[in-house]
Amino acid sequence: MSKMNEQHITTGGMKMRMKIGIVGAGYVGLVSAAVFADWGHDVVCVDHDAEKIGRIRAGDLPVYEPGLADMVERNRQAGRLRFTTDLSRTAGELDLLIIAVGTPAADDGHPDLTALWNVVHSLKQCVKGDLTVAIKSTVPIGTCQAVSRFLNGHPGSRFDVVAAPEFLRQGTAIADFLSPDRVVIGCRTEAAKRKMQQLFAPLACPLLFTDWQSAEMIKYAANAFLAMKISYINTIANLCEQVGADIQQVALGIGLDRRIGPAYLQPGIGFGGSCLPKDTQAIVALGKDYGVDVSLFREVLRVNREQRGRIVQKLADRLGGVQGKTIAVLGLAFKANTNDVREAPALDIITRIVQAGGEVVAYDPAVNMESLKNDFCFTPAADAYQAVTGADAVVILTEWEEFHGLDLQQIRSLMRHPLVIDGRNLYAPHMMKQHGFHYVPVGVPEQEVAEAAATTV
Ligand SMILES: NC(=O)c1ccc[n+]([C@@H]2O[C@H](COP(=O)([O-])OP(=O)(O)OC[C@H]3O[C@@H](n4cnc5c(N)ncnc54)[C@H](O)[C@@H]3O)[C@@H](O)[C@H]2O)c1
Fold first, then answer.
1. pLDDT tier at 7, thresholds 50, 70, 90
2. Which of 233, 327, 370, 396 has its CA 20 to 30 A from that of 140?
3. Are 238 and 170 a contacting pair, CB within 8 Å?
4. CB atoms < 10 A from the CB of 253, how many?
5. Separation CA 441–CA 309 (nearest Å)
6. Cα(21) to centroid(ligand 1), Å
7. Which of 168, 179, 172 is CA-nearest to residue 66?
8. What is residue 362's three-state secondary structure?
9. What's the confidence (pLDDT) of residue 4?
10. Which atom of ligand 1 is least distant from the CA of 275?
11. How far, in whole angstroms, is CA 51 from its chain's centroid?
């Protein structure tokens, strides 16, 4: 616990050290629990998955997130962080309960709120008294209102519901949690507002207090904007390949404009993960529900799907089809520094290669490949060098730091054919050419790749 945070927790004459319950020991729940405990609060993290809780208690975190394991362990040993499967035994003693369960997309694009409502039903049964309930899960507009109505529908208890959307990114979750651009809080009472001010006081960023609906909307609107930025830059990259421009230079030139900014302007294989796809789908579903034209976001999703297909098409064009070819895939996680493969473009791309008759050998430094190999029909490799051995082509799908440092000479010597389709633009084209690769990045015409090599060799 830092000195600044220790001071914050103990000054002001108010009760600063809170008893906090967090339901859901996933990416958001675990990170929130670890950080709040690190700030000196007394935190209990609840998950109904007994195996998960058993693993966490044994020091084996189910999620890979830089710095998280150390933070969890440090606070467990200090007695500030506990894990349990039993919500009912702790809920009654809490100052604040945070809900961080999953809200995945249902088949019709609406978020599936089953987990959230299960928690809310349990709360109603086991809490007698007053409790502030903050919803960190990403939930549709109107959810806080509905939860508040339901919880306060019987005498004896008073639940103060808060919308507390989370904006962390997997892979940099702790850093994001500790220095967010802003914290958004939707609440209805002064007491809830004071409690949230108290909770987030260690942060230097603005706290934006809004009504419930606006807080819920901010989360969806922010993610839909980021998804739109990615589909936008991928569309520009596809144009660059045809017109002879280099997307790296173009993105730099666009991003230096402060009205636009450089973030989320990296071209590639499209967005994945548990948030951008489902939250964009949710905006589309919302538009349908309310009769608002949201075709902009439908296009964002379509462009994103097609970007994956373009990788397979590039492969097939250069190999004369992938039937009977062995393709090495480097990277399965939807982004670097996470083991998460939810909606990972890599799994979709592997499926398309396999359906076209190719054989896939895959490697990822953090993903549990044994649990995926049968469903997605690939052979796991122990490292990148094993994956590329005898391959007709390599496809790079996650921007892991480890792939930057590969011995390219060795990679080249192990491959049957020197084709590299780079979905993340990890390498300098002239360097790849020097090593004898046929290198195909995103957003750079092949002629440009060849010319860059010719001018630098
Ligand atoms: N992952 C992210 O980067 C991220 C970022 C911002 C917001 N969010 C939002 O936060 C929410 C959680 O996302 P996540 O990625 O942490 O999900 P997750 O799937 O990693 O974790 C959810 C956890 O909730 C548990 N759970 C489900 N029902 C439960 C119940 N009734 N009682 C106790 N535990 C229960 C599950 O077992 C699981 O461990 C989602 O709404 C998501 O959209 C996620």
1. very low
2. 233
3. no
4. 11
5. 15
6. 14
7. 172
8. strand
9. 42
10. 43
11. 23
Range list of H helices, 161-211: 173-178, 190-200
pLDDT at 453: 60
Average pLDDT over residues 315-326: 97
Q: How far is CA 254 from CA 244, 285, 375, in A?
A: 17, 31, 41
Catalytic sites, residue numbers: 275
Q: What is the DSSP string of 385-428?
A: HHHHTT-SEEEE-S--HHHHT--HHHHHHH-SS-EEEETT--S-
Supply the mean pLDDT for the chain: 94
Would you say residue 8 has pLDDT above 60? no
- Assess contact for 228 and 220: CB atoms under 8 A: no
Could you tell me if the CB of 164 is within 6 A of ligand 1?
no
Angle at Cα 257 formed by Cα 252 and Cα 262, nearest 5°?
Answer: 50
Q: How far does the centroid of ligand 1 lie from the alpha carbon of residue 88, in Å?
A: 19
Residue 164 contacts residue 195 (beta carbons within 8 Å): no
Residue 183 predicted with pLDDT over 70: yes
Q: Which atom of ligand 1 is nearest to the CA of 63?
A: 20
Q: Kindly state the average pLDDT of the residues 190-206.
A: 97
